Every structure is written in C-alpha cells, then in structure tokens.
Inverse folding.
C-alpha cells in the first residue's frame, strides 16, 4: 500500500474511517515508520487544536437583563436621597480596591425621536429641587460628562440609533474582540465615544486615583453593596420612554473608555461594549411605556450590586419593573448605575 | 409531529452558543444567533436537528455579514447560571486573554469553510454531520480538517503567521 494521505490520517485520528479502510491504514502504519510518525503528529495536532479552540471560551459572559418582571412600584422617597452619602462612602471604599470600574448612567426621557439637543435642553430645565436632591450623590463630574455626551450634536437621534447600527460597526466590534488595542474600543459607537476617551472624567477622584489593589480584596466577595443612583420622573403624559446610557470602563491602569447608548423603546435593545481587556458588558433595557411612569414623582432609584463567584448582579426597580443585570465581571469590580427620568 | 423544543434546547443550545462564540468572539451575539436559530427550528422542525441547527446558525452568521441593517434584537432570558470562569489573578487573566486573542487571530486567517469544519468537529460532530452542516462531501472532510488544523497551528505558532487570507 502506498503512504496514507493527510486526509486519511486525520480520518483515522477522528475515527471516521469505515472498518475496511481503517484496517488498511493501520496495517500500513504498522509497517511504515514515516506514516506512523505522521499519524502521531496528526493526533497531536488534533489535540492541540481542540485545546486552542477551548481558549476561545474564556470570554466573559456578557451582562444581560435577566428579567424584567413586574414588581410593585417602589416608593422612591426622599429618605433614599438623604441616605446617599453613606452609600457613596461605601461605594468609594469599594472603589479604592476596584480594578474594574463600570459606570453606567442612564438617562431617560419621554418621547421618541427628538434630537439629542432636546435631551440636554430638557435636562437643563429640570426642577431645581430635583437637582439639589442629586447633589449628595456627589457625582457632578459624571453628570456633567453625561450631559455633554447627551448634548453632542453628532450623536444619533434617540429614536433612530438602536436600529441603525451599521454592519461596519458590528464588524469593528468583532475586531475589537479579536485583539485590537486601539483606543477606538466600543467601535459600535465610535463617533460618540472618541471624544470621551480622556482619562476618567466621569468619576469622583478617589475612584480613579486608586491603583489596582486586587490582592487587597478577598477572591470572592459575597457582600451586598448598595450603590446609590438617582432618577427623576417628569411629565410622562404621552409617548414612550427613550433612554440613553453612558457606560465607562476603567480596567486597572489601562485607559478606559466610555460610550453613549441610545435606546428607543418599546423595542428591547441591547448594546455590547467590549473593552480592550475583553471585558464585555451588554446593556439591555426592556420596554417602559408612559403608563408605567408615575408623573411628577421626583425619585431616587436604588441599585443593588452584589458579587458572588465572579458574577456581578445589579438589580434595580424602575417604574414598577424589576431589572436585573448579570455578568461575569471580576468580583472586585464595581458597577455604578445612575438613572434619570425626564 | 411536534417539536420538543425543550429537549432540543437542552441538547444543543450550549454547544451551539459555544461554537458561535468561538466563531464570532462575541458571546452576546452568539446567543442572539442561537436564539434565532431555535426560533427557526420551531417554524420548520428539522428531522436531523444537530447538523440542521448548526448549518442554520452558520448561515445566519453569513447573512448577518451581508446585511447592512441590524436585525431586531431580542431580550435574552438567562436560563440558569452560566458557567463562569472562576476568579483569576490579573496575570493569569492576562495570559488567557493573550492566548485567546492569538487563537482568534489565527482562526481568522483560515478560510470560512476550514473554520466551520474545525469548529463543528470540536463540538463532537462526526464527519457525516459535518458534511450535512457544511454541504461539503463526506470524502472532503478529512482533507479539510488536515489542512485546517495544520494551518491553525502554524499560524498560531508563528504568531504573526501567513500574509494571505484564504477565502472559502
């Protein structure tokens, strides 16, 4: 018999030969050192490839909304607002040791399809008491950057953005996942994120000044951490809620990035963010209709961030809906979410 | 004949998402594609589900590539806990990420056909199933795998590897 060709060798490795062909091939291998060596190589190759492909599975699971499920509308009382400084102190202690910082600020407003400039305008006219109520949260720089993001004229209109992501964006996103380390992460929204790459404008100084001190944290923390955020419900006489989120990642000393997301409801929209380190965050927002929003209720939303077994869970309630975001962020990561309803 | 979607999901969903994640590098997208694939299985119950599901998923992926518009996203309801990578020290995580990126880069240099065949085989497909899912002849699978494995390892080992991107 002539030598066994590569294809047949691999069929032999994969046990894909019928009995006759297998017998013939094995008989040849028994008498041909070269082919026996090639068979050993093919066997090793198959095993190595399997191992290498397994390396592709370490991608962190994306954050996802697990529910929404109906929940009783939360009484978002002023008590929550006054309690915020305490929570912020907790937050900062956590943040000092955090190597991953994810900040997501969600801004909601009524009406689909208005320009982003309107968002900023509407924001400026927010009731004074609501504004002052937000002060204890002590995130003015984040607020400001969020406002600037929202006001960026190049940003797509709130209503059109989620469905108009070009194919190129998705391709670029894949390339990011495939290892691009350029600052243009979050390529889906690159036009918006590009000016926002300046280091850490969004977080209070203590959050970003801290060096990564992973070792200072227990590997798995089961502690429940409450993060205060705020929201405000304004007139929701008609229409649907549109949302905009600002998401920022800072991973250790690596330069972070942030991006702005427009979400038009009622279509459920998910957006993915992939950091240079492979951290993936998917933000999903479920439909909220005006009926579900209590008009004129200046309110604070409380976010609960819990971490166990490497999985972070963020829960919050909004307008009678209970939301859960889950993801495989590092256990010492910190997620901060802020919501504003317009 | 009814379709036992639950059984189908239980048997193939994890494998399908894993394959698509390896293929796209994007777990969320993989899950969306898997969800769409199962939705199609409900619409047109397949007789030979496994090759059918994977073939549909790979077709969807190609369609998506051709489509400029983003199709409607759907909310993914998480079933149970995913398996989550255990906590790692940063340097371990860095190394793993390095490896992952290098494998992705190497995989990207394969032809689409070679890549699909490799990924299907890695999910435990036998040659007949690979042939069904890809449309290749049964006799071509061994040769394809031999070439794909060699190329993947060559490129991975060389780091920077080949300059020409084969198209399938």
């Amino acid at each position: 018999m002539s030598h066994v060709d590569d294809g047949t060798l691999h069929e032999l490795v994969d046990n894909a030969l019928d009995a006759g062909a297998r017998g013939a091939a094995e008989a040849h291998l028994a008498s041909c050192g070269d082919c026996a060596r090639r068979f050993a190589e093919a066997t090793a190759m198959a095993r190595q490839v399997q191992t290498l492909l397994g390396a592709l599975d370490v991608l962190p699971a994306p954050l996802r909304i697990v529910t929404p499920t109906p929940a009783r509308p939360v009484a978002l009382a002023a008590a929550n607002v006054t309690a915020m400084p305490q929570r912020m102190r907790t937050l900062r202690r956590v943040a000092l040791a955090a190597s991953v910082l994810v900040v997501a600020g969600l801004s909601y407003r009524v009406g689909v399809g208005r320009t982003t400039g309107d968002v900023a305008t509407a924001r400026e006219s927010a009731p004074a008491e609501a504004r002052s109520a937000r002060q204890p949260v002590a995130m003015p720089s984040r607020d400001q950057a969020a406002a600037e993001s929202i006001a960026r004229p190049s940003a797509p209109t709130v209503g059109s953005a989620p469905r108009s992501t070009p194919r190129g964006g998705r391709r670029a996103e894949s390339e990011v996942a495939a290892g691009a380390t350029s600052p243009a992460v979050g390529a889906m929204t690159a036009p918006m994120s590009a000016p926002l790459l300046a280091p850490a404008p969004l977080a209070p100084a203590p959050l970003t000044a801290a060096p990564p001190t992973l070792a200072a944290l227990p590997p798995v923390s089961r502690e429940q951490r409450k993060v205060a955020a705020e929201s405000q419900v304004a007139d929701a006489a008609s229409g649907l809620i549109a949302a905009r989120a600002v998401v920022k990642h800072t991973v250790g000393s690596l330069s972070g990035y942030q991006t702005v997301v427009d979400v038009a409801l009622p279509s459920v929209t998910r957006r993915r963010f992939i950091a240079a380190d492979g951290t993936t965050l998917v933000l999903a927002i479920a439909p909220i209709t005006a009926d579900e929003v209590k008009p004129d209720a200046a309110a604070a939303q409380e976010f609960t961030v819990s971490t166990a077994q490497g999985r972070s869970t963020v829960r919050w309630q909004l307008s009678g809906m209970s939301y859960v975001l889950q993801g495989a962020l590092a256990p010492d990561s910190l997620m901060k979410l802020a919501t504003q309803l317009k | 004949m009814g379709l036992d979607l639950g059984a189908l999901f239980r048997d193939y969903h994890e494998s399908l998402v894993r394959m698509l994640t390896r293929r796209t590098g994007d777990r969320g997208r993989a899950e969306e594609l898997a969800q769409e694939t199962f939705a199609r299985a409900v619409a047109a119950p397949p007789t030979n589900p496994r090759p059918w599901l994977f073939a549909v998923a790979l077709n969807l992926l190609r369609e998506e590539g051709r489509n400029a518009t983003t199709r409607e996203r759907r909310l993914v309801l998480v079933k149970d806990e995913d398996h989550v990578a255990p906590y790692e020290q940063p340097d371990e995580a860095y190394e793993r990420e390095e490896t992952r990126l290098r494998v992705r880069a190497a995989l990207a240099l394969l032809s689409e056909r070679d890549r699909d065949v490799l990924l299907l085989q890695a999910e435990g497909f036998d040659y007949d199933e690979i042939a069904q899912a890809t449309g290749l002849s049964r006799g071509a699978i061994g040769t394809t795998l031999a070439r794909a494995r060699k190329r993947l390892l060559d490129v991975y080992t060389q780091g920077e590897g080949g300059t020409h991107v084969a198209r399938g």
Summary: Chain A touches chain B through 67 residues (CB under 8 Å). Residues 59-303, 318-323, 325-342 of chain A have pLDDT under 50 and may be disordered.
